[in-house]
Amino acid sequence: EIPSLAEMFKGYFKIGVAIPFKVLINPVEAKMVVKHFNSITSENEMKPESLQPREGEFDFSKADAYVKFAEENGLVVRGHTLVWHSQTPNWFFVDKDGKPASKELLLKRLENHIKTVVGRYKGRVYAWDVVNEAIDEAQPDGFRRSKWFEILGPEYIEKAFIWAHEADPNAKLFYNDYNTEIPAKREFIYKLVKSLKEKGVPIHGVGLQCHINISWPEIEEIENTIKLFSTIPGIEIHITELDMSVYTQAGEEYKTLPRDVAVRQGYRYRKLFDMLKKYKNVVTNVTFWGLKDDYSWLNQRGRFNYPLLFDKDYQAKLAYWALVSPNVLP
Ligand code: G3I
């Protein structure tokens, strides 16, 4: 039997995985999750469109199954996600006449969604991605022009944290985003989180999604982001959606993973984890966005990608061995 990933990084951080529901009900895959990981995230099943497809009609059937699975197997759950511009039904944003919802109406709906969801899993979901991807560095003020922002202005962000905290005072509450290595975006996120903290808004961490590729960004830039965010007192960091595309441009495609690319990927995963281990006091969870290559969201428009640690046939890749066994890389 090959070594458990979670076991390898014990003493550093939790190792998590995002999984679709089909993994939970596949005995081989469920066993693999329990062996290698000690944290799980539902890839889509706790998003607003899944939990409240129509106003007031909550469907917790799948979300409940994740939480139960975690409890039965001694894992923790990262809840993903409460407030996002995507995978959120349009009914949130319109009134009964189909006109844009008023501020009051949208706030009421936001409060109800957050309190119902977080309240249901009180004490059982250890961390929530409360607000996802609210920063857009192309805007002069840094705020993404989502419907949330357009109707409510930036204060929807603090409201979301306050309501989540009311519903579960012990849950760790995160702001989560991608491309956090781009200096302009990193600065906007830093300013946002720092000002929330200074106002006394209950926020406990920043999630760095870390959808990286084989050459971008430099590991040093990820480190710079960790260094900057860890200067904010009371903030911890989770790597929330880690994967490493083997492509850097649209036209590239490998029908199978070439050995030299697999080796590069292995070295790069190793370098990333060696860096992360230095920050074990602030980086407390590292979650992969997928169990095996064929389940990755990066497989799009017929092009297969190889971003994870296990291949489609359940084999541990060189990327896995680079993390668990120091001498495998040539
Ligand atoms: O559930 C429907 C199904 O009924 C339908 O038949 C099928 C046909 O397309 O689509 C299914 O929905 C898909 C859903 O995943 C569930 O599989 C959507 O089309 C597809 O767009 C959706 O993609 C998800 C994506 O978020 C949507 O934004 C990915 O699985 C998921 O990995 C991805 O995750 C996001 C994080 O939440 C936030 N950060 C970025 C990350 C990657 O995009």
TrEMBL record:
Residue limits of the GH10 domain? 1-326
Its recorded name reads Beta-xylanase
Which residues of the complete protein does this chain represent? 343 to 672 of 1037
From which domain of life does this come? Bacteria
Q: Which residues form the active site?
A: 241
Q: Identify its protein family.
A: Belongs to the glycosyl hydrolase 10 (cellulase F) family.
